[in-house]
Amino acid sequence: MSTRTDVLVLGGAGVDTIVHVPELPLPYADSYMIDSGIRTRAGQTGDFVALGLSALGLRTHHLDLLGEDPEGDLVRALHEERGIALTAIPQPAGTKRAVNLVGPDGRRLSLYDTSRARAADRFPEPLVRSLAAASRHVHVTITQPCAHALPVLRETGVPLSTDLHDWDGENPYHEPFALAADIVFLSATALSDPERTVRRIAERGRARVVVATAGADGAYLLADGELTRIPAAPPPGPVVDSNGAGDAFAAAFLFGRLTGRPAARCAWYGAVAGAYACTVPATRTAAIGRDELLGARVDDPGGAALAGHQVLRRAGHGPPPA
């Protein structure tokens, strides 16, 4: 079958209800007055990755389970509006949803409704095989039931990526994804030793590239055995919400990968896109465009390439070399 899609995104479709709160953690009170309003919009991890890829000009197809409900209608409308192909498998339990509490500094606390999934949920194997075979790359979210599709995806030979989000390095749920993917993204938030975790992923699984994002501290990039510290990119405006920053990072990294850039440049693209995402209010869905991404130029205040705990080389000014 000829390739018609650059990236197939598997899973992660849903809606978020956004509540801006005065602080996080939120102290107990009988009630809070939310002057900014409480808004529900389409967009969870798979939606944001698909949106980011499409905004960068990559042909994107999204596959997930959706309910015949108002939340599912919002997801369908988002994809139609942005011109992103969507294949929706009926989900009797309903469309995935979450409530995001967003603090004044842009940090968030997400409350996921796990009732909208069933242990027996599966993607039809022939459909997964067909869509993957028509794609250059598959990005697999860690939402149910994507783990069950991993063996079929691996049989196709199409390169895989995944995002483990705030994995602590131990939770067994994430391991099948970590070990099956060729490119692994995760947040360093819950990691006491990010270097140890990224190296363990590479040693135990298939990944040639592992990236642990660390917010304002940049990211750790492990590529072909060399660990590099990628500096954070300054946001192009005020930071209002960190929701979707990791998804934006992954989308921009994959854009770099699929357009032939070296790993350090891909990670720099991810840093730029992640910083941009932090300037987008949680009530909106927007992604950096190709011209903005390729035109980003800032000074690197002192990134360094690491192996073990030893500095191998010190970066000069500017983003990682192309």
Terminal-residue CA separation:
33 Å
Which fold does the CATH topology refer to? UDP-N-acetylmuramoyl-L-alanine:D-glutamate ligase
Q: What's the helix-strand series? A: EEEHEHEEEHEHEHEHEEEHHHEE
Percentage of β-strand residues: 25-35%
Number of strands: 15
Oligomer: single chain
Mean pLDDT over all positions: 89
Radius of gyration: 19 Å
| SS class | alpha/beta
Low-confidence stretches: 299-322
CATH homology-level superfamily? Ribokinase
| Widest β-sheet, arrangement of strands | 5-4-1-8-9-10-11-12-13-14-15
Helical element count? 9
Task: List key phrases describing it.
322 residues, alpha/beta, UDP-N-acetylmuramoyl-L-alanine:D-glutamate ligase, 11-stranded mixed sheet, 4-stranded mixed sheet, 9 helices, 15 strands, disordered C terminus
Describe the structure in your own words.
This protein has 322 residues and is of the alpha/beta class. The protein has a single domain, classed as UDP-N-acetylmuramoyl-L-alanine:D-glutamate ligase (3-Layer(aba) Sandwich), CATH 3.40.1190.20. Helices cover 29% and strands 25% of the residues. Helix 1 crosses helix 7. The longest helix has 15 residues. The C terminus is likely disordered. Pfam families: PfkB. GO terms for molecular function: kinase activity. Keywords: Kinase, Transferase.
Please write out the topology.
Elements: E1 5-10, E2 14-20, E3 38-42, H1 45-55, E4 60-66, H2 70-82, E5 85-90, E6 96-102, E7 108-112, H3 125-133, E8 135-140, H4 150-156, E9 160-163, H5 175-180, E10 183-187, H6 194-204, E11 209-213, E12 219-223, E13 226-230, H7 245-258, H8 263-277, H9 290-295, E14 304-307, E15 310-314
Parallel strand pairs: 1-4, 1-8, 2-6, 4-5, 8-9, 9-10, 10-11
Antiparallel strand pairs: 2-3, 6-7, 11-12, 12-13, 13-14, 14-15
Helix pairs in contact: 1-7, 7-8
